[in-house]
Each structure stands twice: as structure tokens, then as C-alpha cells.
């Protein structure tokens, strides 16, 4: 044993340093206003924005805000990097993770990360990349924590210079484009000018215009549908700046409201279908050689509410549009089918013939109707306008604006407007007219919508 005077000096060996990764932080307990500055990297003169958001936004909720304040059109993938090495982390879209585009070792989903987990104190930074092909990198800085704001909300304060056009080739390509646009003698000047459009001015930026568009994000936060609903997903593909009237409907639609006369709504909206299924009965209805309902059944059906006002002098199904639609929709909804010359109930039809509640639940999952995606998306817009109590004229403009914002165009590349756009939603519109869920209908002259129709629309938009 060594003498005490020669004993070696001992010390505590420290453990490996604990790295405080952004995603491991709990975030704030209170919700405050974060004043942020975003700057587009590698572009000169600088393109920047100053704006305010609630501190508790998740990154997938911050993404559309950034798209709006910058002026992008959300046409490409994006990702984030938070923190400084070695504690930096990458946050991916759920879509990128599902499709295998993300790094297997770094698959943190943006949906699970709150802004106040990655930006904690003034000076903290967050990187945001949009369009991996062009490589538009942005730096976001937390400038100020405004704890005294009475109600944190999204707001654009200032900024400079227009957002580059989509697909302009990243910072280098955009610099080349600006050079071509500035030189009328350049051989590509006319083509470049036509491509960017007459409204493009690289020096222009109006925070008031952006602020008005941000109102759409506030409307979604305060009055939007259930986050994982099909309609919420549709809204995510519709930039607020391109559809201000659509987003203005959200507050009027009361999509977060779940009160109402459900029993009355269930009875009213399913009345015609249940009557018809009961009339079909277990034995079915023998159809004509042309596959239509026999005149005696057509005559009975005309006694239903709203059907007696259809002008006709005979009881042929082809001459009675509401009766024909009732026949068609019963089959479309999987409640009846043609079998050996008869119209017979399906298993679902037999179950719902005397069950308004079951039929109601079935309709919530099947609406809006349409064989094509554009018909169903137009149907969602009609239902939003119905839930909001919009006038028939407003309905037309809401559908036209929404379809244009979603990118739908006619074969000649023009935007479809007015009544033509509205009737793209014909499968849903005619079903609502058939049941009396909207004021404009067969034999109905009152243009006011029944409250149960608005309740139906709210519930469909929440599924």
C-alpha cells in the first residue's frame, strides 16, 4: 500500500454533457405573443418579414403562416431545423415521414413540436426550408416575447420586397431572372415578363394585404373544423390569400358548435329516404322495362314534402325530377340496388328504413357526394356556405373562389366562375334540395335555410 504522502490526486470524472434538445423542452405554461423576423437566405437585397404569432403554435400550424407572410403558394415540401449543433434537430412533414423521404435517424414530426419548444428566448433561431428543388432557406429569429398582449394572435407588422415567384430556381435562378426582367433588350425579357405576370414587382410589399390574409389562419384557429377532419385537410391546400371569402365563412359557420336539435335534424334530413326504403319493403318494387319506378309508385312519392310542386301532367319517373333523384340517391348511398328487375333494399337499407339516427350517421360519412374529386371538393364548399347561412349568391362565389384557390381550371386553363362553378357540386346540391336542407329546392320558395340543414352541414364538415 502506498504511503499517504504519495497517494495520487483523485478527481471526479464528469459524465457526458447532457444536451438539451429543443424537442425535449416542455414549452411555456402560458401563451404569449412571439414577435418573429423571417429572412430569405442568400438573396440580396434582403427579403424579410416581421410578424407576431401565438407562442403555442405547432410547427405544422406555423408553416401556413410563413407561406402567407412570405408569399409562397405551398406547392412543395418543407422541413425545419431547430437548435445549434450538436443539439440541432430536423422536423419533418408527416407526409415526408410516411413516404420515406425523411432521414430514418431524424424523423421528428413537425406536428409534435411547439414553437415555444424551439424558440425559448429572444435571439433563438429556427431554420425553414421550402421547395427542396429550388432550395429556399429561411432564417427565423425570435425578436421579442410580448407577454403583455391581451390576446395573442397572428399579425404582420412589416417587411420588404416581394416573394420570388415559385419555381424560379432558388436564389441563383431568381437573381438571373431579375437581371433579365431589368433588361428590355435581353432576348428572354418578353418571355420572362409573361411568365411572372404583369402584377409582379420585386420591390413591392404591403403588410396590410398580408395581414388581411392572415385573418384566415386566425379564423381556422378560432372557428375551424376538427383538425383531423377531411374538410380541415382541404383547407390546408387552400391559401387564405387566394380565398378570403371562403375563410370569412368560418366564423359564421360555427363549426366548433355542437349544440342543436339533433333528433329534429335526424328526422328531417332522413325523412324522404326512410319513406322510400319502407315503400320498397322486404319484397322490393318491380321496375319498368326501362328500369324506372312504376307510375303508381311515382304518384305515391309525389306526396312527399317538396315533391308536389314539381310541374308535370303525368307520373312517369323521367318527368318527375325529385322522384328520379330519390331513386338515384337511394342507390348511390348504398341503401338499395337493382336485382332481377326489382329495386330491393340492401342490408344497410333494411337497417336504416326505420332508424333515423343510423341513417344520419351514414350520411355524415358519405357527404359530400360526387364521382369526381372536384365534385366532392365543390360539395364541401357548398356545405360550408350552408353552415354559414350564406345567400344563394354568396354560395356561388364561395364555390368559385374555393375551386380556383385549389387550382381547378377549365380545359382552356381559365378559372370557372359563377353558376357554372356552383353546379360542379350538383350531386351534393341536389341531395340537399331533395331533403329540404337548403331553402332553394323542389317546390320550395322560401330561400331561408332550415336550422337543421345548417346543423347537418356543420357535422359533415367535422367528420
From TrEMBL:
Residues 1-21 are annotated as: Disordered. Residues 34-207 form the Plasmid pRiA4b Orf3-like domain. Residues 1-10 have a biased composition (Basic residues). Pfam families: PRiA4_ORF3. Gene3D superfamilies: MM3350-like. This is Plasmid pRiA4b Orf3-like domain-containing protein.
